[in-house]
Amino acid sequence: MSVCIVGWGHTAFGKRTDADTEALTLEAARAALDDAGIGATDIDEIVVGSTGRLGEQAFPSSLPLQMDDAMRFTPSTNVENACATGSAAIHQGMNAIRSGRARLVLVVGVEKMTGASREEVASNLLKASYVKEESHIRGGFAGVFGLIAESYFQRHGDKSDALAAIAAKNHRNGAKNPLAHFRKDLGYDFCRHASEKNPQVAGPLKRTDCSPVSDGAAALVLADVETALAMPKAVIFRAAAHVNDFLPMSKRDVVLMEGCGEAWRRALDQAGLGLDDLDLVETHDCFTVAEMLEYEAMGLARRGEGADAILDGVTEPGGRLPVNPSGGLKSKGHPIGATGVSMHVMSAMQVTGSAGDIQVPGATLAGIFNMGGVSVANYCSILEPIR
Fold first, then answer.
1. Does the residue 76 lie in any domain?
2. Which of 62, 61, 65 is nearest to 41 (CA)?
3. Do the domain assignments include residue 236?
4. Of 78, 145, 220, 229, which sees the most CB atoms within 10 A?
5. Which residues of the chain have pLDDT under 50?
6. Greatest CA span in the chain, whole angstroms?
7. What pLDDT was estimated at residue 211?
8. For the chain, how many structural domains are there in total?
9. CB 370 within 8 A of CB 86
10. Which residues contact 101 (CB under 8 A, 6 or more apart)?
11. What is the C-alpha to C-alpha distance for residues 190 and 217, in angstroms, rounded to an integer?
Protein backbone atom coordinates (compact mmCIF):
# COMPACT_ATOMS: atom_id res chain seq x y z
CA MET A 1 0.00 0.00 0.00
CA SER A 2 1.35 3.42 -0.98
CA VAL A 3 1.64 6.21 1.59
CA CYS A 4 1.30 9.97 1.17
CA ILE A 5 2.29 13.08 3.07
CA VAL A 6 -0.78 15.27 3.53
CA GLY A 7 0.50 17.94 5.92
CA TRP A 8 3.66 19.23 7.53
CA GLY A 9 5.05 21.58 10.16
CA HIS A 10 8.53 22.83 10.95
CA THR A 11 9.95 25.00 13.71
CA ALA A 12 12.83 27.35 13.19
CA PHE A 13 16.10 25.52 13.87
CA GLY A 14 18.84 27.03 16.00
CA LYS A 15 19.63 27.74 19.63
CA ARG A 16 16.05 27.77 20.85
CA THR A 17 16.38 29.12 24.37
CA ASP A 18 12.68 30.00 24.16
CA ALA A 19 11.50 26.39 23.88
CA ASP A 20 12.08 23.02 25.54
CA THR A 21 11.53 19.60 23.93
CA GLU A 22 7.80 19.68 24.66
CA ALA A 23 7.28 23.16 23.23
CA LEU A 24 9.21 22.29 20.05
CA THR A 25 7.23 19.07 19.65
CA LEU A 26 3.88 20.80 20.00
CA GLU A 27 4.82 23.70 17.72
CA ALA A 28 5.68 21.36 14.85
CA ALA A 29 2.82 18.93 15.50
CA ARG A 30 0.13 21.61 15.66
CA ALA A 31 1.43 23.17 12.45
CA ALA A 32 1.31 19.79 10.67
CA LEU A 33 -2.29 19.11 11.75
CA ASP A 34 -3.36 22.60 10.73
CA ASP A 35 -1.61 22.20 7.39
CA ALA A 36 -3.44 18.91 6.77
CA GLY A 37 -6.75 20.46 7.82
CA ILE A 38 -7.47 17.84 10.49
CA GLY A 39 -7.96 17.76 14.24
CA ALA A 40 -5.87 16.05 16.88
CA THR A 41 -8.45 13.31 17.39
CA ASP A 42 -8.31 12.33 13.71
CA ILE A 43 -4.85 10.86 14.31
CA ASP A 44 -4.84 7.07 14.71
CA GLU A 45 -1.21 6.67 15.74
CA ILE A 46 1.83 8.79 16.60
CA VAL A 47 5.52 8.15 16.04
CA VAL A 48 8.12 10.38 17.65
CA GLY A 49 11.75 10.38 16.55
CA SER A 50 14.18 11.58 19.23
CA THR A 51 17.45 10.26 20.58
CA GLY A 52 16.82 11.95 23.93
CA ARG A 53 20.54 11.89 24.61
CA LEU A 54 21.14 15.57 25.21
CA GLY A 55 17.84 17.21 26.09
CA GLU A 56 15.89 17.38 29.31
CA GLN A 57 13.23 14.86 28.22
CA ALA A 58 14.47 11.33 27.48
CA PHE A 59 11.00 9.75 27.12
CA PRO A 60 9.05 11.92 24.65
CA SER A 61 6.51 9.58 23.03
CA SER A 62 3.47 11.03 24.85
CA LEU A 63 4.44 14.68 24.46
CA PRO A 64 2.21 15.15 21.36
CA LEU A 65 -0.79 14.21 23.51
CA GLN A 66 -0.29 17.53 25.31
CA MET A 67 -1.93 19.18 22.29
CA ASP A 68 -5.38 17.97 23.26
CA ASP A 69 -6.63 15.95 26.24
CA ALA A 70 -8.90 14.07 23.84
CA MET A 71 -5.76 12.41 22.40
CA ARG A 72 -5.34 10.42 25.61
CA PHE A 73 -4.74 6.72 24.89
CA THR A 74 -3.66 7.32 21.28
CA PRO A 75 -0.81 4.84 20.68
CA SER A 76 2.56 6.57 20.38
CA THR A 77 6.08 5.19 20.08
CA ASN A 78 9.48 6.85 20.19
CA VAL A 79 12.08 5.44 17.79
CA GLU A 80 15.84 6.05 17.59
CA ASN A 81 18.34 5.24 14.84
CA ALA A 82 21.20 7.69 15.37
CA CYS A 83 21.17 10.61 12.91
CA ALA A 84 18.57 8.76 10.79
CA THR A 85 16.08 8.79 13.69
CA GLY A 86 13.65 11.05 11.84
CA SER A 87 13.52 8.81 8.78
CA ALA A 88 13.17 5.75 11.01
CA ALA A 89 10.11 7.39 12.58
CA ILE A 90 8.64 8.03 9.13
CA HIS A 91 9.15 4.39 8.15
CA GLN A 92 7.44 3.25 11.35
CA GLY A 93 4.51 5.49 10.53
CA MET A 94 4.37 4.15 6.98
CA ASN A 95 4.34 0.60 8.32
CA ALA A 96 1.35 1.42 10.52
CA ILE A 97 -0.58 2.59 7.46
CA ARG A 98 0.51 -0.29 5.24
CA SER A 99 -0.57 -2.81 7.87
CA GLY A 100 -4.05 -1.30 7.96
CA ARG A 101 -3.62 -0.42 11.63
CA ALA A 102 -3.86 3.32 10.97
CA ARG A 103 -5.33 5.66 8.38
CA LEU A 104 -3.69 8.90 9.59
CA VAL A 105 -0.34 8.95 11.41
CA LEU A 106 1.44 11.90 12.98
CA VAL A 107 5.24 11.74 12.82
CA VAL A 108 7.28 14.20 14.88
CA GLY A 109 11.08 14.46 14.90
CA VAL A 110 12.55 16.55 17.69
CA GLU A 111 15.83 17.22 19.46
CA LYS A 112 17.00 19.70 22.08
CA MET A 113 20.80 19.81 21.98
CA THR A 114 22.21 23.26 22.68
CA GLY A 115 21.92 23.00 26.45
CA ALA A 116 24.71 20.42 26.50
CA SER A 117 28.41 21.28 26.52
CA ARG A 118 30.57 20.70 23.45
CA GLU A 119 32.24 17.79 25.27
CA GLU A 120 28.88 16.19 26.14
CA VAL A 121 27.71 16.47 22.54
CA ALA A 122 30.91 14.94 21.15
CA SER A 123 31.00 12.03 23.60
CA ASN A 124 27.31 11.24 23.25
CA LEU A 125 27.30 11.30 19.46
CA LEU A 126 30.40 9.13 19.27
CA LYS A 127 28.34 6.36 20.90
CA ALA A 128 26.71 6.01 17.47
CA SER A 129 30.03 4.56 16.29
CA TYR A 130 31.33 1.04 16.99
CA VAL A 131 32.46 1.85 20.50
CA LYS A 132 34.66 -1.22 20.91
CA GLU A 133 36.98 0.00 18.17
CA GLU A 134 36.23 3.67 17.60
CA SER A 135 35.63 5.32 20.98
CA HIS A 136 39.25 6.51 21.10
CA ILE A 137 38.78 8.85 18.13
CA ARG A 138 39.24 12.42 19.32
CA GLY A 139 36.73 15.09 18.43
CA GLY A 140 33.61 12.95 18.24
CA PHE A 141 32.13 12.47 14.78
CA ALA A 142 34.10 15.44 13.48
CA GLY A 143 37.16 13.33 14.25
CA VAL A 144 35.64 10.35 12.45
CA PHE A 145 34.86 12.33 9.31
CA GLY A 146 38.21 14.09 9.55
CA LEU A 147 39.86 10.67 9.23
CA ILE A 148 37.58 9.80 6.32
CA ALA A 149 38.50 13.06 4.56
CA GLU A 150 42.21 12.34 5.09
CA SER A 151 41.79 8.85 3.63
CA TYR A 152 39.95 10.21 0.59
CA PHE A 153 42.60 12.91 0.04
CA GLN A 154 45.35 10.30 0.18
CA ARG A 155 43.65 8.37 -2.64
CA HIS A 156 42.40 11.20 -4.82
CA GLY A 157 44.30 14.34 -3.85
CA ASP A 158 43.44 17.33 -1.71
CA LYS A 159 39.80 18.32 -2.31
CA SER A 160 39.64 21.20 0.14
CA ASP A 161 38.48 23.53 -2.64
CA ALA A 162 35.43 21.32 -3.20
CA LEU A 163 34.61 21.05 0.49
CA ALA A 164 34.73 24.83 0.80
CA ALA A 165 32.50 25.16 -2.27
CA ILE A 166 29.94 22.78 -0.71
CA ALA A 167 29.98 24.76 2.54
CA ALA A 168 29.60 28.04 0.66
CA LYS A 169 26.74 26.66 -1.45
CA ASN A 170 24.83 25.39 1.54
CA HIS A 171 25.29 28.61 3.53
CA ARG A 172 24.20 30.61 0.50
CA ASN A 173 21.08 28.43 0.20
CA GLY A 174 20.41 28.54 3.93
CA ALA A 175 20.55 32.33 3.94
CA LYS A 176 17.29 32.23 1.98
CA ASN A 177 15.59 29.71 4.27
CA PRO A 178 13.66 31.40 7.09
CA LEU A 179 13.78 28.19 9.15
CA ALA A 180 17.56 27.70 8.98
CA HIS A 181 19.90 27.83 11.98
CA PHE A 182 22.46 29.89 10.03
CA ARG A 183 21.08 32.51 7.66
CA LYS A 184 24.29 34.11 6.47
CA ASP A 185 26.11 33.73 3.16
CA LEU A 186 29.67 33.16 4.37
CA GLY A 187 31.26 33.15 0.92
CA TYR A 188 33.77 30.75 -0.55
CA ASP A 189 36.92 32.49 0.70
CA PHE A 190 35.81 32.38 4.33
CA CYS A 191 34.95 28.68 4.04
CA ARG A 192 38.18 27.83 2.22
CA HIS A 193 40.71 29.32 4.61
CA ALA A 194 41.32 28.57 8.27
CA SER A 195 41.04 31.58 10.54
CA GLU A 196 40.26 32.54 14.10
CA LYS A 197 36.56 32.39 13.27
CA ASN A 198 36.92 29.29 11.10
CA PRO A 199 39.50 27.10 12.86
CA GLN A 200 40.66 23.63 11.92
CA VAL A 201 38.51 21.10 13.77
CA ALA A 202 39.70 17.63 12.73
CA GLY A 203 42.10 16.66 9.96
CA PRO A 204 41.36 18.83 6.92
CA LEU A 205 37.92 19.81 8.24
CA LYS A 206 37.32 23.35 9.43
CA ARG A 207 34.38 24.66 11.42
CA THR A 208 32.56 25.53 8.20
CA ASP A 209 32.80 21.87 7.16
CA CYS A 210 30.76 20.76 10.19
CA SER A 211 27.02 20.93 10.78
CA PRO A 212 25.98 22.78 13.95
CA VAL A 213 24.47 21.59 17.20
CA SER A 214 20.83 22.67 16.92
CA ASP A 215 17.42 22.58 18.56
CA GLY A 216 14.27 22.05 16.54
CA ALA A 217 11.36 19.89 15.46
CA ALA A 218 9.56 18.91 12.27
CA ALA A 219 6.36 16.96 11.74
CA LEU A 220 4.42 15.16 9.01
CA VAL A 221 0.92 13.77 8.69
CA LEU A 222 0.92 10.52 6.73
CA ALA A 223 -2.13 8.92 5.10
CA ASP A 224 -3.07 6.06 2.80
CA VAL A 225 -3.67 7.07 -0.81
CA GLU A 226 -7.46 6.80 -0.67
CA THR A 227 -7.61 9.12 2.33
CA ALA A 228 -4.99 11.44 0.85
CA LEU A 229 -6.90 11.95 -2.39
CA ALA A 230 -9.80 13.42 -0.41
CA MET A 231 -7.52 15.96 1.28
CA PRO A 232 -6.28 19.34 0.03
CA LYS A 233 -2.85 18.05 -0.99
CA ALA A 234 -1.00 14.77 -1.25
CA VAL A 235 2.65 13.96 -1.85
CA ILE A 236 3.26 10.29 -2.49
CA PHE A 237 6.32 8.22 -1.63
CA ARG A 238 7.38 6.93 -5.03
CA ALA A 239 10.07 5.09 -3.07
CA ALA A 240 11.16 4.54 0.52
CA ALA A 241 14.26 2.38 0.90
CA HIS A 242 16.14 1.44 4.07
CA VAL A 243 19.35 -0.57 4.31
CA ASN A 244 21.81 -1.09 7.14
CA ASP A 245 25.52 -1.69 6.71
CA PHE A 246 28.04 -3.07 9.20
CA LEU A 247 28.63 -0.85 12.22
CA PRO A 248 32.45 -1.28 12.51
CA MET A 249 34.32 0.89 10.04
CA SER A 250 37.00 -1.83 10.00
CA LYS A 251 34.60 -4.17 8.16
CA ARG A 252 34.09 -1.91 5.13
CA ASP A 253 35.63 0.81 3.02
CA VAL A 254 33.90 3.82 4.55
CA VAL A 255 35.12 6.16 1.81
CA LEU A 256 32.82 4.36 -0.63
CA MET A 257 29.66 4.85 1.47
CA GLU A 258 28.25 1.64 0.04
CA GLY A 259 25.16 1.76 2.26
CA CYS A 260 24.25 5.10 0.72
CA GLY A 261 24.75 3.71 -2.76
CA GLU A 262 22.62 0.64 -2.06
CA ALA A 263 19.79 2.72 -0.60
CA TRP A 264 19.80 4.94 -3.69
CA ARG A 265 19.82 1.93 -6.04
CA ARG A 266 16.84 0.38 -4.27
CA ALA A 267 14.89 3.64 -4.16
CA LEU A 268 15.41 4.45 -7.82
CA ASP A 269 14.49 0.87 -8.71
CA GLN A 270 11.29 1.08 -6.64
CA ALA A 271 10.35 4.32 -8.35
CA GLY A 272 11.33 3.18 -11.83
CA LEU A 273 13.45 6.30 -12.21
CA GLY A 274 16.99 7.35 -12.91
CA LEU A 275 18.93 9.98 -11.00
CA ASP A 276 18.56 12.34 -13.95
CA ASP A 277 14.77 12.27 -13.51
CA LEU A 278 15.03 14.05 -10.16
CA ASP A 279 14.67 17.80 -9.84
CA LEU A 280 16.53 18.13 -6.53
CA VAL A 281 18.08 16.17 -3.68
CA GLU A 282 18.21 16.83 0.04
CA THR A 283 21.19 14.84 1.29
CA HIS A 284 22.86 14.23 4.64
CA ASP A 285 25.69 16.76 4.79
CA CYS A 286 26.61 16.33 8.44
CA PHE A 287 30.08 17.24 7.15
CA THR A 288 30.96 18.63 3.75
CA VAL A 289 33.03 15.56 2.95
CA ALA A 290 29.90 13.45 3.51
CA GLU A 291 28.02 15.40 0.84
CA MET A 292 30.91 14.98 -1.59
CA LEU A 293 31.10 11.22 -0.98
CA GLU A 294 27.33 10.96 -1.36
CA TYR A 295 27.61 12.50 -4.85
CA GLU A 296 29.71 9.49 -5.78
CA ALA A 297 27.63 6.91 -3.93
CA MET A 298 24.35 8.08 -5.53
CA GLY A 299 25.95 7.97 -8.99
CA LEU A 300 26.09 11.69 -9.67
CA ALA A 301 29.88 11.49 -10.07
CA ARG A 302 32.37 8.70 -10.64
CA ARG A 303 34.55 7.44 -7.80
CA GLY A 304 37.22 9.97 -6.97
CA GLU A 305 35.45 12.71 -8.95
CA GLY A 306 32.84 13.95 -6.48
CA ALA A 307 34.59 17.31 -6.32
CA ASP A 308 33.71 17.95 -9.95
CA ALA A 309 29.97 17.91 -9.19
CA ILE A 310 30.26 20.99 -7.01
CA LEU A 311 33.11 22.74 -8.81
CA ASP A 312 31.33 22.38 -12.17
CA GLY A 313 28.11 23.77 -10.69
CA VAL A 314 26.09 20.56 -11.09
CA THR A 315 24.69 20.71 -7.53
CA GLU A 316 24.26 24.48 -7.33
CA PRO A 317 20.82 26.10 -7.66
CA GLY A 318 20.20 26.13 -11.40
CA GLY A 319 22.57 23.20 -11.91
CA ARG A 320 21.67 19.82 -13.37
CA LEU A 321 20.71 18.46 -9.92
CA PRO A 322 20.46 21.05 -7.12
CA VAL A 323 21.54 19.49 -3.82
CA ASN A 324 20.41 20.85 -0.46
CA PRO A 325 18.49 23.92 -1.63
CA SER A 326 17.28 24.16 1.99
CA GLY A 327 20.84 24.78 3.17
CA GLY A 328 21.22 21.18 4.29
CA LEU A 329 22.32 20.11 7.74
CA LYS A 330 25.29 22.43 7.32
CA SER A 331 23.26 25.63 7.34
CA LYS A 332 19.67 24.65 8.18
CA GLY A 333 20.92 22.77 11.25
CA HIS A 334 21.05 19.23 12.60
CA PRO A 335 18.78 18.60 15.61
CA ILE A 336 19.28 14.86 15.30
CA GLY A 337 15.78 13.44 15.73
CA ALA A 338 14.27 16.20 13.61
CA THR A 339 16.69 16.00 10.69
CA GLY A 340 15.13 13.18 8.64
CA VAL A 341 11.63 14.58 9.09
CA SER A 342 12.87 18.06 8.18
CA MET A 343 14.38 16.76 4.95
CA HIS A 344 11.01 15.30 3.98
CA VAL A 345 9.19 18.52 4.89
CA MET A 346 11.58 20.60 2.79
CA SER A 347 11.23 18.21 -0.15
CA ALA A 348 7.43 18.10 0.10
CA MET A 349 7.42 21.89 0.02
CA GLN A 350 9.59 21.83 -3.09
CA VAL A 351 7.42 19.43 -5.10
CA THR A 352 4.25 21.34 -4.19
CA GLY A 353 5.77 24.66 -5.21
CA SER A 354 5.52 26.08 -1.69
CA ALA A 355 9.21 26.45 -0.79
CA GLY A 356 9.32 30.22 -1.14
CA ASP A 357 12.74 31.75 -1.68
CA ILE A 358 14.44 28.34 -1.81
CA GLN A 359 12.08 26.95 -4.45
CA VAL A 360 13.62 24.95 -7.30
CA PRO A 361 11.54 26.09 -10.30
CA GLY A 362 9.18 23.42 -11.62
CA ALA A 363 10.28 20.73 -9.17
CA THR A 364 8.03 17.65 -9.06
CA LEU A 365 10.43 14.86 -8.08
CA ALA A 366 12.66 15.11 -5.01
CA GLY A 367 15.18 12.62 -3.65
CA ILE A 368 16.13 12.43 0.03
CA PHE A 369 19.06 10.65 1.68
CA ASN A 370 19.37 10.51 5.47
CA MET A 371 21.90 8.38 7.33
CA GLY A 372 22.80 7.31 10.84
CA GLY A 373 26.44 6.77 11.70
CA VAL A 374 28.95 6.56 8.86
CA SER A 375 26.49 5.30 6.26
CA VAL A 376 25.30 2.59 8.66
CA ALA A 377 21.55 3.24 8.75
CA ASN A 378 20.66 4.50 5.28
CA TYR A 379 17.25 5.83 4.21
CA CYS A 380 16.37 7.06 0.73
CA SER A 381 12.99 8.47 -0.33
CA ILE A 382 11.60 9.84 -3.57
CA LEU A 383 8.59 12.18 -3.35
CA GLU A 384 6.10 13.33 -5.98
CA PRO A 385 2.81 15.24 -5.68
CA ILE A 386 -0.39 13.50 -6.76
CA ARG A 387 -2.75 16.42 -6.02
1. yes
2. 65
3. no
4. 220
5. none
6. 60
7. 97
8. 1
9. yes
10. 44, 45
11. 30
- Whole-number Å distance between alpha carbons of 159 and 43: 48
Query: The CATH number of the domain where 27 resides is what?
Result: 3.40.47.10
84 within some domain: yes
| Secondary structure of 211-222 as H, E, C letters | CCCCEEEEEEEE
CB 324 within 8 A of CB 169: yes
Residue 102 half-sphere exposure toward CB, CA atoms < 13 A = 25
Q: Is 92 part of a structural domain of the chain? A: yes
Total length of the chain: 387
pTM over 0.85: yes
Q: How far apart are CA 125 and CA 144, in angstroms?
A: 11
pLDDT of residue 81: 97
What is the SS3 string spanning 217-272?
EEEEEEEEHHHHCCCCCCEEEEEEEEEECCCCHHHCCHHHCHHHHHHHHHHHHHHC
What single-letter amino acid sits at 113? Answer: M
Q: Residue 55's pLDDT is what?
A: 80
In Å, what is the CA distance from 382 to each residue of 238, 271, 334, 347?
A: 5, 7, 21, 9
pLDDT of residue 201: 96
Q: Tell which residue, 123, 130, 68, 83, has the closest CA to residue 337.
A: 83
Domain with 87, as residue range(s), is 3-116+213-228
Q: What is the pLDDT of residue 242?
A: 98
Tell me how crowded residue 71 is: count the other CB atoms within 10 A of its CB.
Answer: 18
